[in-house]
């Protein structure tokens, strides 16, 4: 695809949090009201088989913004530092003359070799990735948002997070069918949107890049009015799970650990009890609330789009809409983003490119795509170069309807489940922390999950698309296990760190070979 030749090459990268792919109307979620996302899908290309390369938030955003697989960037959990030697999207944008602005967060812990041990960033789950200029940050302590509320005249409760409790002093924590105590005009979604409009209105015609992050539909699962009751529980999609959580737990030791350990408190502010105790009615209501949070983000995004329309910038702006990771939402009795299930890894991706060829608008692309592809896509569209060590590939050919002959034939994603301060799998499973990892190779037929030190899993996706029946131990499928294990190994070998492997010393001096 040719580069945009306009002098105003703008990029809007919208990164929402915990929005799973099957909650996109263009991909079948007809129960949702998202007119602005619907417009973006009509004018752009929607990717049906798109995954984040890892979970949770920090590692996922590291892959999204560095273009590297987890096995290469090694920021394996929210609290694990990102090596300063890695470049990222912001640093590469600066090379080509952009001042990359960021609203939201990246959940990045700094390299301890670049600062002192008393750096306050080491007391939080993560801060901002180097290279971005914050114009509306949320991390590390949400001080920007809570300060904004105070400036707006909103009286914060003694415990600031209580704004996400249900309305009414008599309402028990965990109830999701009442509105939150914060009004929609004061929500974090409203805060991010105001910051975005303030930034855009200050550009005065200069080209811009904006990473616009939204915290929702991330928990706590509570929505302000009128979004709290926009959807009926009975209209939500059916659950995918076995008859009991104990039956699910028998599939694998890691799944057993999470089913026994995930509580409701991280998802409903002030709540207690195990996630497995939620009955189908409670989960349906939770999904209805989750949908309301999605519609709130969509309405906010509509304000940004309207401004770009009014100022005639929409036509010159590359817009990419995606999420950091998905959400289990009760499927397999799980909440959050853990393990190896599709619900945690399949995420939305929509790209509207101003110079896309006629006929591309509104198309659904079935090729396998990954979050590491976003960085190379943006850089190519702006005339930059993909870093040598990046694991992803530009999606612009796919946007144009031209699938490269050597495009990937499977999806690859990873998860590192070592101990962090809020979860201790390695202790419970009796593993060394460097053995707490898995990778997945998945195509249209099979899903193979390889663990460093636990039994593998194999699912026949044609017969068992939701991954209930593990076939890895069945003698009849030993050949399939072998083939996909070899594919996983070959994939890792091809993508081993290669920043300098195309250089060589010669009698005439240093040579750089064309990769």
UniProtKB/TrEMBL annotation:
Record keywords, A-Z: Hydrolase, Metal-binding
Keyword check for Metal-binding: yes
InterPro entries: Alkaline_phosphatase_core_sf (IPR017850), HdlasePehA (IPR054912), Sulfatase_N (IPR000917)
All copies of domain Sulfatase N-terminal, residue ranges: 9-383
Superkingdom, natural source: Bacteria
Pfam families: Sulfatase
Protein name according to UniProt: Alkaline phosphatase family protein
Gene3D superfamilies xref list: 6.10.250.3360, Alkaline Phosphatase, subunit A (3.40.720.10)
Lineage: Bacteria, Pseudomonadati, Pseudomonadota, Alphaproteobacteria, Acetobacterales
């Amino acid at each position: 695809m040719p580069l945009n030749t306009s002098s105003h090459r703008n990029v809007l990268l919208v990164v929402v949090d915990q929005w799973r792919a099957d909650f996109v109307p263009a991909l079948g979620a007809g129960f949702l009201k998202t007119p602005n996302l619907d417009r973006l899908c009509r004018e752009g290309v929607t990717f049906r088989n798109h995954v984040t390369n890892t979970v949770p938030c920090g590692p996922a955003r590291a892959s999204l913004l560095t273009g590297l697989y987890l096995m290469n960037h090694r920021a394996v959990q929210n609290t694990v530092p990102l090596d300063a030697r890695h470049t990222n999207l912001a640093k590469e944008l600066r090379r080509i003359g952009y001042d990359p602005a960021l609203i939201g967060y990246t959940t990045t812990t700094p390299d301890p070799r670049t600062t002192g041990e008393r750096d306050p960033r080491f007391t939080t789950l993560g801060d901002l990735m180097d290279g971005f200029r914050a114009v509306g940050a949320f991390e590390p302590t949400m001080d920007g948002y809570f300060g904004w509320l105070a400036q707006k005249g909103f009286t914060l409760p003694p415990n600031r997070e209580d704004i996400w409790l249900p309305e009414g002093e008599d309402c028990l924590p965990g109830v999701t069918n009442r509105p939150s105590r914060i009004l929609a005009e004061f929500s974090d979604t409203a805060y991010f949107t105001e910051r975005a409009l303030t930034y855009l209105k200050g550009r005065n015609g200069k080209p811009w890049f904006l990473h616009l992050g939204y915290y929702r539909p991330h928990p706590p699962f509570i929505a302000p009015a009128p979004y709290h009751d926009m959807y009926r529980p009975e209209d939500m999609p059916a659950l995918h799970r076995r008859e009991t959580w104990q039956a699910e737990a028998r599939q694998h030791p890691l799944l057993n650990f999470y089913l026994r350990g995930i509580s409701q408190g991280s998802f409903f502010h002030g709540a207690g009890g195990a996630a497995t105790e939620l009955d189908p009615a409670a989960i349906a209501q939770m999904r209805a609330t989750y949908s309301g949070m999605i519609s709130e983000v969509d309405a906010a995004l509509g304000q940004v789009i309207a401004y770009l329309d009014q100022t005639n910038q929409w036509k010159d702006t590359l817009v990419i809409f995606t999420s950091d990771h998905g959400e289990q939402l009760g499927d397999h009795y799980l909440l959050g983003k853990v393990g190896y299930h599709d619900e945690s890894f399949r995420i939305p991706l929509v790209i509207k490119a101003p110079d896309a060829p006629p006929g591309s608008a509104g198309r659904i692309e079935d090729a396998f795509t990954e979050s590491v592809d976003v960085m190379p896509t943006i850089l190519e569209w702006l005339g930059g170069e993909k870093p040598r060590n990046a694991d992803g590939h530009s999606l612009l050919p796919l946007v144009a309807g031209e699938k490269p002959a050597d495009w990937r034939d499977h999806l690859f994603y990873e998860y590192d489940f070592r101990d962090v301060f809020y979860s201790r799998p390695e202790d419970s499973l009796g593993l060394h922390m460097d053995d707490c990892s898995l990778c997945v190779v998945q195509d249209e037929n099979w899903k193979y999950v390889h663990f460093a030190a636990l039994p593998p899993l194999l699912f026949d996706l044609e017969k068992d698309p939701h991954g209930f029946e593990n076939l890895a131990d069945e003698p009849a499928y030993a050949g399939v296990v072998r083939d996909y294990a070899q594919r996983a190994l070959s994939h890792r070998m091809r993508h081993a760190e290669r920043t300098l492997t195309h250089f060589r010393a010669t009698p005439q001096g240093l040579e750089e070979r064309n990769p």
